[in-house]
Amino acid sequence: MSTTTDTTARAEAPALKIRPLMPGFGVEVLDVDILNADAATLSALENAVGRHGAILLRGQHLIPTEQLEFTRAFGEPAPNPRRQYVVPDMPEIYVISNRMVDGKFIGEAEAGTAWHTDLNTAPWATTCWPNTP
User: Fold this and answer.
1) Cα–Cα distance for residue pair 4/17, rounded to 1 Å
2) Region 111-118 average pLDDT
3) pTM (predicted TM-score)
């Protein structure tokens, strides 16, 4: 797939380099390091979520507190009511993974088999996919 530049962001926000994930929904945002993103870049990312429905940011290496801090840049995240696979003491981060440790899945193994959304009435939710290709 080709990449484009999302020029729909506010004038003060930088243009994002994006690649569509599928026709009409979702984009991969390229060349953004969210640990070092400034307010203008965060604003452009928020605009991209609103315009495209979902964003994918590959290659981010965040610990759970950093992921939660990033999510809070968009608003207060909602805790996931299914506590089995949340990050300990951080119910706002739900782990999706088919990796097993000591005979147990470290995250919800079935959640990634089909597209769906949880908490779609909440303003923001965050999900962690360890070792996503």
Assistant:
1) 6
2) 65
3) 0.69
CA-to-CA separations, 12 to 5, 7, 39, 69, 120, in angstroms, rounded: 15, 11, 10, 23, 29
Tell me how far apart the 2 most distant CA atoms of the chain are, in Å.
51
Does pLDDT of 44 surpass 90?
Answer: yes
Q: Which of 94, 2, 8, 1 is nearest to 52 (CA)?
A: 8
**Residue 5 burial class via C-beta count within 10 angstroms: exposed 0-12, middle 13-18, buried 19 and up:** exposed
Inter-residue contact 19 to 28 (CB < 8 Å): yes
Contact 85, 77 (CB under 8 A): no
Residues in the chain: 133
